[in-house]
Structure formats: structure tokens, C-alpha cells
Amino acid sequence: MVAVSEEVVAVVVVREFDPKTDCSAVVELEGRCEVGPSGKLSLYTDLLGDPICRIRNSPAYLMLIAELVILGDGKVRREIVGMIRGCIKTVTCGKKLPRPTVNHPNVSDSLPVCTKLAYILGLRVSPSHRRKGIGMKLVCKMEEWFRENGAEYSYMATENDNQASIDLFTHKCGYSKFRTPSLLVHPVFAHRLRLSRRVTILKLNPADAELLYRRKFSTTEFFPRDIDSILHNKLNLGTFLAVPAGSVTAESWPGAAEFLANQPDSWAVLSVWNCKDVFNLEVRGASTWRKGIAKTTRVVDRALPWLQLPSIPKVFSPFGLHFLYGLGGEGQLAVKLVKALCRFAHNLAKDGGCGVVATEVGSREPLKMGIPHWKRLSCEEDLWCIKRLGEEYSDGSVGDWTKSPPGLSIFVDPREF
User: Fold this and answer.
1) 143-178: per-residue pLDDT in tens?
2) What torsion, rounded to 10 degrees, do the Cα atoms 199, 232, 98, 256 define?
3) Cα gap 176→164, rounded to integer Å
4) What digits encode the pLDDT tens for the residues 91-111?
5) Those residues with Cβ within 8 angstroms of residue 250's Cβ, 6 or more apart along the chain or in another chain
6) Domain that holds residue 254
7) Is the same domain home to 105 and 195?
8) Using CB atoms within 10 A as the burial measure, which of 22, 132, 181, 254 is most buried?
9) How many whole angstroms from its chain centre is CA 361?
10) Residues in the chain with pLDDT values less than 70
11) CATH number (domain holding residue 286)
12) Is there a contact between 189 and 301 (Cβ–Cβ < 8 Å)?
């Protein structure tokens, strides 16, 4: 975009983010851009001085900025007016049955079909420079990088009432509405939650967790092929398995392979990701009355913890969160076991000084009923949009993933939350 007058020339240049020179300007711009639905309350994200923190743990990532360069009166003035982040990984986009062989004539277990997928995160344009094509320019430049690095699809997530973002991606950039997962958020109370004696919760080592996930969830949509990198990351606080009391104990744990060969009638699993060390959140724009009510609930909860009263955490000042991912399970008691795991995760977040725990699951997820959450904090229908970047694909047996119907479950990568 170029604006020309007799004395001044203004050009918007898209280039790669330079942490040595751009950090402070990007942080300042991030603070001026409202995140979340419009209205009196807005959600501010404090990236703790690291603008690429939310993509840094991905296999391949890039951050671009849009810089307004103004030439006039023999001087050059520069201003960062937009930014976009992107990352690339290989995920499951479908499944297929393997061909029968002489040794295995009856094949029933599905195999994952994988594709190289790109993700767009954190598109921001300065409020004073919107509707000038800067967002479109940033998206197109990022998609060039995606294609150069072999990405076959690109997707993004936004609130379902963020009409400006939806219009940009679906009307101008060629994306289509794809999945509508549920973002479920639960506050961390001032008291610990009681855990059922009928449930045993075990912490798995990364090797056992990887084996369980690959055996049971590798055909789940969006399952990352590098799940081992996630489970070994320092931000991963552990993978936890819930079983009926008396079936398996920490002392009798046989290892994941033996467990899966002789698994109990019901079990559930989830992993916990520490977002608190990556970024903090803050709800801004609240009235004094709202803040007073929230503070009162915490005071009463701390004074009378045996009442188990639900209290509102300090969401009007910076707070951290733990993200629950890799939720799954089997058997008639799976929902109850998921609920027990979520209560365990709540207590883990309380010990870690977090304000909320959050997770994201498919809209048709059968275990969703076991995930406690507050509707006012949650988004029952988030929106993911997707775009096919080319014509030659490794997922030929699936066809065009953008046109495939949703499954029951999705695997949400914690590195992109």
C-alpha cells in the first residue's frame, strides 16, 4: 500500500520480526489491540516481554510485522502497525484401514492419514490503521511462507462473534468455516476440591504417555505427529491417568503396553500444559461493583473453606492458567473419571498460583459432560476456519480435508493455545 502526496510518501512494508529492535513496539501495539469479543469487558494478554512465546515451541514458526515507513521533509519515520504469527506441523487429518496381508488377513484398526498443517495466530492491526488492507497483506505474506515450507492446509481460530476477523478470512482470503470446538474455562477457587476415593489417579512418565496417546488417539483429527516433543517439553506438567480404585495402583503399574493389553473396563486420561510461564491474562473494563463482588467471594471462600463456596479468582488483575489437553477415555465410567481428573487439575493449578484452568474439545465430544466449566467464562462454540493451499497432497486417501465432516473428537495442541 502506497500513499503519495507532494511532500510525503507512505509505504507499508511486511518483514520478519526482529527481537532486537521490534520487541517494545510490538508489545505496545499488542496492548492497544483489544482481544476477544467487543464490549465493555476485554481480555488483555501479557506476553511477558516475548512476542513469539505462543509459537516458540512449535516445530517451525515465523512472526511478521507490518511497518509503516513515512518519507518526507528529508526524514524517515517508521511505525509498526500490524503483526501476524504462524507455525507449521504435521497432524492427522483422517484415517484409513491398512491393506490385509497373509499374516494379518482381518484388519480392523485404522491408521492415521497425515498432512502438513499451518496455523495462523495473533493477527493484529493498529486500531488507527484498520480497513486499509494491512491485515490482508500480512495473511498473504504468511501464506507464502507456509507454501514455501510445504504446508498443505492453513487454519485459524477466532471467536464466533468476531465478525471482522471472520469476514477477512472467509470473504477475502479464501478460508471456509471448518470446526466449532468448545472452549471450556473453570475458575480456580480459594479452596481445594475433594477427590473421590473411588478413583485412582496415576502420573505417567513421558514414554508411557506417548505410547498411550499413539495407540489410542493417533487417528484423532489434529493429532500432532510430534506428540513426543510436546510431552517432553518443560511446559508440560504431566499426563494423568484415572482408573477405578483397586484396578491399578502406582505400585502395580505394569507400563502402558501391558495396561492397554489388559485395560480396565473404564479409564480416562489428560495432560496439563503450563501457560502461566508463557503469558498472563487480565480482564479489563470491569466496574468497581463487579470487582467488589469478586473480591467478596474470595474473602468468604478463604474464611470458610469447608463450605466449598465457588469464588471468582483475581481475573481483573494479571492471572495465569493451565491448559488441559489430550482428554480421552473409554468405558461406562469415562465421564466420571474425566470429572475426577479435572478436579485434580484444578488443585494442581491452585498449587501453581493460576486463576483458571481451560480446555478445548470438539463440539460433539462424548466426554464433554465430565468437564466442569463456567458458561460466563467459556465459549461453547469457537470457530476454526481452514484453507487448502495447493493441489498436490499427501492425504490423497482423505481427499479435500476442508470438505470433510467433523468427527467426535479433536486433539488441541497446547503449543497453539
Assistant:
1) 999 999 999 999 999 988 888 899 999 999 999 999
2) -40
3) 15
4) 999 988 776 655 554 545 789
5) 202
6) 183-381
7) no
8) 181
9) 10
10) 1-6, 34-41, 99-108, 392-398
11) 3.40.630
12) yes
